[in-house]
Each structure stands twice: as structure tokens, then as C-alpha cells.
Amino acid sequence: MIEIRDLVKTFHPGSVNEVLALAGINLRVKNGYFITVIGSNGAGKSTLLNCLAGSYAIDSGHIQIGEQDLSYWPEHRRASLISRVFQDPLLGTCAALSLEQNLALANRRGCRHGLGRGVRRVDRELFRQQLQQLGLGLEDRLRDPVGLLSGGQRQALTLLMATLIRPQVLLLDEHTAALDPKTAQQVLELTVKLIAEQQLTALMVTHNMRQALQLGNRLIMLHGGRIILDVGEAEKAAMSIEDLLQKFYTVRGEEFVSDRMMLV
Ligand SMILES: Nc1ncnc2c1ncn2[C@@H]1O[C@H](COP(=O)(O)OP(=O)(O)O)[C@@H](O)[C@H]1O
Ligand SMILES: [Mg+2]
Fold it and tell me: Are 70 and 62 contacting, i.e. CB atoms less than 8 angstroms apart?
């Protein structure tokens, strides 16, 4: 269970550039729920994920995962519970290290000792099997530097690393947006598979409304740092893209959907 209470985040407080990015977010997510998150540019989606992961300190409010209140935990400590995949395929992996070295690092998440780069034979076999499941032929490239992979391959590897040790929460921030449509679809299918297999609790930001409606079992829409729509599985299934657009229009008029919202 994730519980977010009265979460507020301001950037550059007290200056002319002050931005109230999160204006009091309240959200309870049950274990095993997969939530899609939509909203226009600047709605606060990434800030919400960054505050959850501990990349940004919060102004006030509480963030709890299970019984633990991690509102003021540093990012590295939260990383033992929370995995994330960003939009930029370069961010989740280390280019200079091989696939197996990257996976070995991911395999030690939460361990207190050592980040040595040695890869044990038994782990190598596990990595090979895991990579084989991706269907991208990466199992034959265990010793290649990750920098040689394509963006999509790298994003698939990042997802695998994020879930190699089951995280309590998986955060995805437009993680397929930088990929070509075919690769994006493959990475999305892998995402759905991993979330289902491990029954992960996940928040996935997407600007694709069809995806947001089709995937997961709850959808939230952010606007101006607030949750302005929160629908469960049944209601979501009955919704159309037009319904979502209608919601957008009512909060801010027509120009609101002209940014990166994708209508298909
Ligand atoms: N690091 C930052 N410094 C200053 N302002 C920021 C920063 N990150 C986000 N913001 C501002 O906070 C608001 C919410 O941004 P963000 O969470 O990135 O929106 P979204 O991901 O929904 O597009 C925007 O007005 C944005 O300009
Ligand atoms: Mg964003």
C-alpha cells in the first residue's frame, strides 16, 4: 500500500519563479494496483514521481509505503523499495558496464555490502534466462557494453533491472515516449507482463490516453498539482478518449489538449 497525504511541493519558494507543483496530493494505492497517470505538460506528474522516489524533498505531507513513513528518507534508502524507469533510455543503465555487470548491480539492490562488479556463474545463468524472455537476443550479449544497445533494448534492460528484485513500487515516467512506435509497443508489452507476473504496485505516467485507458486498473489525471480525476477499473473500462478530453476541456479550455496529448 502506498499512502500519500497532503503532499505539497513548491519550486523556488519566495522567488518570482515560484511554482506550486504539487498542491496537496492525497492518494492511496492498494498493493498490486497498476495506475496510469495522465495530465498536460506541467501538471505535476514527474514531480509526484520524483517526490515519491525521494529525488525532490517535499515541503509538507506524508509518504508511506506499507508501514513505513518514508517522507524524509533520502533517495538511496527509498531505492531499496522503489524502482523507476525514466523517459531517457540512457538514465537507467551504465553504458560503460556490460549487460551482466549492470544486471549484477541491480541484483544487489538493497544489499548493504559491496558493489563489486564480479558476476557469479550462477547469476550469469539467471541473467541469461531473464534476457531470453525479452525476445531481443540480448542473452548472447551478456558481456557487451550496454552503450552498444539501441534505445529500446536499453529500456527493456532497464525494466528488467528495475524488477529483478521485486520492488514494492515501480514508477514509470513516460518510459516509452522516446522510442519509435514499434519498439515502444514492445517495451510496453514487456512492462505489462512484468507487472502482471510479479503483481507489482505501479504508477505509469503516459501522455497517450488510449494507453492510459487500456492498461492498469485505475487512472488518475493531474492538473495544476492536483488530482482532478480518479477512476477505478470498471469506470475506466466504460470511458472513451472523448470522455477524457471532455474532462480536460472542462478544467482549462480548448488549448489544454494542444500540447503533447496524443489522441490515439
Ligand atoms: N526541478 C524543477 N525546478 C523548477 N521547477 C520545476 C522543476 N521540475 C518541475 N518544475 C515545475 O513544476 C511544474 C510541474 O512539472 P512536472 O512535474 O515536470 O510536470 P509534468 O511531468 O506533469 O509535465 C511545472 O510548472 C514545472 O515547470
Ligand atoms: Mg513529466
Answer: no
Identify the residue whose C-alpha is closest to ligand 1 atom 26. Answer: 42
Atom of ligand 1 nearest to the CA of 42: 19
Query: 17 C-alpha vs ligand 1 centroid, how far in Å?
Result: 12
Q: What is the pLDDT of residues 102-161, one digit of tens each?
A: 999 999 876 665 556 578 888 999 999 999 988 889 999 999 999 999 999 999 999 999
Ligand whose nearest atom lies closest to the CA of 37: 1
State which ligand 1 atom lies nearest to the alpha carbon of 222: 22
What's the 122 CA to ligand 2 centre distance in angstroms?
A: 39
**Spatial contact of 51 and 62, defined as CB atoms under 8 Å apart:** no
Q: By the 8 A CB rule, do 35 and 204 touch?
A: yes
126-136 pLDDT, tens digit per residue, is 999 999 988 88
- Which residues are CB-contacts of 12 (< 8 A; sequence separation ≥ 6)? 18, 19
Query: Given strand 226-232, what is the order of strands in its sheet?
Result: 82-85, 169-173, 202-205, 34-38, 218-223, 226-232
Q: Map out the domains of the chain with their CATH numbers.
A: 2-81+167-258 (3.40.50.300)
